[in-house]
Amino acid sequence: MTAVLEANDVSRLFEVRRGMFRKKRTLHAVNGIDLAIQAGEVLGIVGESGCGKSTLAKILLGLLPPSEGRVRYGGRDLTELDRFAVAKLVQPVFQDPYSSLNPRRRIAAIVGFPLDVHGIGTKAERRRMVSAIMERVGLPSHFAERYPNELSGGQRQRVAIARALVMNPKIVVCDEPTSALDVSVQSQILNLLLELRKDLDVTLVFISHDLGVVEHIATRVAVMYLGRIVELAPTHELFADPKHPYTRALLSSILTPEPGLGIPETGLGEAYPDPLNPPSGCRFHPRCRQRFAPCDTQAPRPLLASGHMTECHLHDPQIDGSLPQKDAYP
Amino acid sequence: MTESTAFAAVAMPSAGARLRRRVFGHKSLVFGASLLAVIVLVALLAPLIAPYDPYAQNLLARTQPPVWYEAGTWAHPLGTDNLGRDYLSRMIYGARISLVIGFSVMVISGLIGTTMGLLAGYFGGTVDLVVTFLVTTRLAMPVILVALAIVAILGGSLLVVVLVLGFLKWDRFAVVMRSATQQVRSQDYVAAAQAAGASTPRILFGEVLPNVFAQLVVVATLEAASAILLEAALSFLGLGVQPPLPSWGLMISEAKAYMFFSFWLIAIPGTALALLILAINLAGDGLRDIVAPEGRE
C-alpha cells in the first residue's frame, strides 16, 4: 500500500482573544500530527468534541493551511498545488446536510458544480455525468430539478456524497457524515459509502465520535485527544487490544443494547480540559486512571509496534514502570 | 427506491404554477406592486397622458380648486397652482423625478454598500475592520446636514441630489450585507465550493450573493423610499431640485404660502408621496417573502 496523502508534524494554531484588552492566547487545535493515508483504506478518526477532528479535516481538504508542518501529496506540498489539483485529489462530505447544500440551487446544479468549476466536458456530457452519479448514490432522476429543502436529511446527504464523487477524487474526507441523521438512515449512508469505496476505488477518511460507526466502516482507526493522535491501529486490533488508557475508556463508553445496565462508567471522571491551557506532560494525565510519576512532567513519545502506534508511558520500555502510581483523582 | 415512487404518485403542480400562486396569494405584495406599477406607468407615459404642459403658466386661472370643489372644473381636474399651471400635469411629471431619484440613489448606494458588506463579511479580519470603520465614520455624519452643505456648495440640481444621496446612503446596505454574508460564510456549502476549487468571485456571486438577496431586496426598497423622502425634504428646503422642475417635494414647498387658502396644493403631492412610499415598502416586503428560501414549499 502506498500513502496518498501524508501529514508530517502538522499543527494548527488559533489566536484567541477574549475581550478587547485581554492578551491574545494561542489555541493548538491540532498539535503535531503525523498521518499517512494509505490508498484504498478507510481511516476512521475518533475523539471527543473539541479534540481537533474537524480542524484536521479542513487541513486535509486544503481549506485551512497548517500553521506548522506539511501536508504532502505525491511528494508535493498541498499548499503548492493549485486549487483545481487539490479539488481533484480530495473532496468533502460535511456533517450537516442542511447547511452543506446551497438552498438556491437545484440538485443537478449542486452535484454538477465541481464539473462546472473545472470546465469538464460539454453541457450534455456534464448532465450525463451528473445523472450517472445521482443514480449511483441512489437518488431518483426526477430529484435533479428539485431544491434541497424538498429533500430529507438522508437524501441531502446522498446529494453531498454525489457532489464529492462526481470529480472522481482519490480521497473523500467525511466529517461526521451520519451524526445529523436518523439511526435508520445512518446505516443506509454508511453502507452506501462502503459500496462506493469499493466500486469507485476511493480512499475514505471518516471522522466521527461514534465508535460503533467507526468499527463498522473503518479499516484503521486514529484516536485523537486534545489535538494529538494518541493511538493508531488497524480497526480489529484497536478494538480487541486497546493500548492507550483513553482508548480503553472510550471503548468502555460504547452503549450496550442491554436495558438494565444504564450508562457505562468510563472512569474519565473530570471534564474535558481547557484546550487554551492544556495539561503539562501527557495531555491526558489529569483524567487517566493509570498515571504514574513521569506523566505530568514528560510528554510521551509515539511508540510503534507492528503497525500499532500508541503515545503512552505505560508502553514505553525506556520509562521505568515501577515508579509510584499517583492518585487517579486529585 | 420506494420513497421516490411515493413522491411521484402525488401530482405536484409545476414550479411556475406554485410561484404564481405564491405571488398572487400575497395580498400586500399584489397591492403594493400594482400601485407601484401604476405610478411607474404614469411616469413613463407622462408626455402622452398629461393634459397640459407642466411648465405652461396661465395667470388668469391661478389657484383653481380641484374638480370635487364647487368652483372646480374638469378643465383642471386637480386645479392649478399659484402660477396657473395645471396641477395634474405637474403631478404626473413630478412622479418621474421621484422615481428617477429613488431608483438611481438605490443603485449607486446599493453598489457601494453591497460590495463593501460582501467583502467585509466574506474576508473578515482587516477588510472587515476597514469597512466597519468607514461605516462608523459615515454614520457619524447626519445625512441631511451633509447633503444640505454639499448642495449649498455645488448648487442644487437633479444630478447633484442623486450623487450626494447615492454616496451618502450606502451605510445600511453595508451593515446588512456584512452580517448576512457572515452568516452565509459559515455555511458548509461555501466550504464545499472552496473544496471544489471555485474561485473567490465565483463563490461570492454564485454562492453568497443569491443567499443574501432577500435581505438586499428589503434594504433596497427601504433605501429607495427613504431617498425619495430625502429628495422631497431637500427640495422643500429649496436645496434640492430647482424650480420650475415639478418635484413633489418642491410643489409642497411652493404651496406652503397658500396652505390656509388652497389646502389641496399641499395635500395632493403629500398624499402622492405617501402612496408611493407605501407602494414601494409593500412591494419590497412581499418580494422578500417570495424570494426567501425558507418560504419555498
- What is the count of structural domains of chain A? 2
Distance between the termini of chain B: 23 Å
> How many runs of DSSP E, i.e. beta strands of chain A?
12
SS class of chain A: alpha/beta
Q: In CATH terms, what is the fold-level topology of the largest domain in chain A?
A: Rossmann fold
So what's the overall shape of chain B? globular
InterPro entries (chain A): AAA+_ATPase, ABC_transp_ATP-bind, ABC_transporter-like_ATP-bd, ABC_transporter-like_CS, Oligopep_ABC_C, P-loop_NTPase
Domain ABC transporter (chain A): 5-251
Keywords (chain A): ATP-binding, Nucleotide-binding, Transport
Organism (chain A): Fulvimarina endophytica
What is shown here, in short?
The complex is a heterodimer of chains A (330) and B (297). Chain A has 330 residues and is of the alpha/beta class.
For the structure shown, list the relevant keywords.
heterodimer; A: 330 residues; alpha/beta; Rossmann fold; eight-stranded mixed sheet; 9 helices; globular; B: 297 residues; mainly alpha; MetI-like fold; 13 helices; disordered N terminus
Structure description:
The complex is a heterodimer of chains A (330) and B (297). With 330 residues, chain A is α/β, with parallel strands linked by helices. Chain A has two domains: 239 residues, P-loop containing nucleotide triphosphate hydrolases (Rossmann fold, 3-Layer(aba) Sandwich); 71 residues, no CATH class. Chain A has nine helices and twelve strands. Chain A has an eight-stranded mixed sheet, with helices on both faces. A four-stranded antiparallel sheet of chain A has the order 2-1-4-5. In chain A, β4 and β5 form a beta hairpin. The mean pLDDT of chain A is 83. The N terminus of chain B is likely disordered. Chain B is globular, with a radius of gyration of 24 Å. In chain B, 42% of the residues are buried. The longest helix of chain B has 37 residues. Classes of the chains: A alpha/beta (330), B mainly alpha (297).
